[in-house]
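idk why but the lab printer keeps eating my pages so im just putting this in chat instead. protein + magnesium ion:
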Amino acid sequence: MKRTKVIDALKSTEYGAEICVKGWVRSKRGSKGIFFIALNDGSTIKNIQIVGDESNFPEETVKRITTGACLSVVGKLVESPAAGQASEVQATTIEILGDCDNTYPLQKKGASWEFLRTVAHLRPRTNTFGAILRIRHNMAMAIHTYFHEHGYFYFHTPLITASDCEGAGNMFQVTTKNLYDLKKDENGKIIYDDDFFGEQTSLTVSGQLEGELGATALGAIYTFGPTFRAENSNTPRHLAEFWMIEPEVAFLDQEELMDLEEDFIKYCVRWALENCKDDLEFLNKMIDKTLIERLEGVLKEDFVRLPYTEGINILQEAIKNGKKFEFPCNWGDDLASEHERYLVEEHFKKPVIMTDYPTAIKSFYMKQNQATADGGSIGYRGCVAPGPTMQGTDVLFPSIGEIIGGSVREESYDKLMAEIERRGMDMTHLWWYLDTRKYGSCPHAGFGLGFERLILFVTGMQNIRDVIPFPRTPKNAEF
Ligand code: 4AD
Ligand code: MG
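predcted complex ->
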């Protein structure tokens, strides 16, 4: 008999019809010889209730219906007398597809997040992780749909690379060599000529540089793939392996880049509200009572567009008025998350797109703002900064901090080279990148959205380890 998914069985009004549902037992209770099973197959947060008369089944079968067991149930779909569910199944036959004994770790409700991480192979079967993973899927669909509808091409950039996009050196090496038996030159420097790729290679930290090649040919592209960072950051916002979405667009200026960042995030949030109703309502009830309100709030607000220099002024003013921060925030400092959160959560109370960061704290490829005679610069909406700045535009979100990192790219070959030389960067492996500025260079811009940070925001979860099925963090690559 053909299986009906629980999501469809719950919607069906063909009462009296015989159906077959399959899934895992969430709970079983009994009273006066009647048993009630909550069965879930992952298609929806909702369980379907299976009702059976114990006397109609072998005692052995009834005993084997335990929490976690996998069942195939055939029975009659009937209108449910119980509140909160439209239909249930009156079981006629129950087949145990997979037994589950009492060592099953998900017996009890209310297990801690920490405990659930130790059983990451099973936690997708809990209500919360089921909801998160369905939302995660939906966000991926929203992203592809957004870009497809807006004429962007999905562009596949390599995961194995010989270049370091962000120049931060936080890369995992890729080699087939025995690390204890490496060929070295007379200065003790490793020679890679007999390694698999014949040169030093790593897992990519970003697909941006290759993405720029795509944009300067196809006009507008996006990437959506895993990226890797070997930063030893043990925080609720960092993973060693995370997914990033990186659109890159020719002929896009700073204001248009911000428009894109804002429109894109709002589209994703709206998609979640429209397509993940049941899961969001569950999370709103169980995890965070202000979740849906916060998601709806983001759609109503215009994001603030704020030059870094003005942000520093606001923070300095706050300090004058008695606000205490752990880290300094003088012009030139990289903002700590306490500063970002003050601006977003306390000062503006809405998302902020911060732009025109000091050159020293940003990457080499960003568009340089016009310099002034006294060593300062003029940037967004005429904002004057005391030092050189670049058109980096990051989106800062409540409770998340930086959700997007982006910029207008420096299209001038001479300016880009001057910055590369000033930083003493080795460009041997990036000759092809420089060619974009040599052959028909064009103004262009793009950004990277951390997929898991988006999922954090949309689900209201607090730890990035809980919005990806199998997190990779320092000292943890299990499952
Ligand atoms: O700000 P980042 O480092 O920017 C880039 O990599 C650019 N090349 C992107 C571009 O312009 N195409 O990273 C972009 C975003 C961050 O804003 C953050 O959301 C996320 O990626 N991110 C991380 N997410 C989880 N774990 C980490 N370790 C992350 N590092 C960055
Ligand atoms: Mg960044």
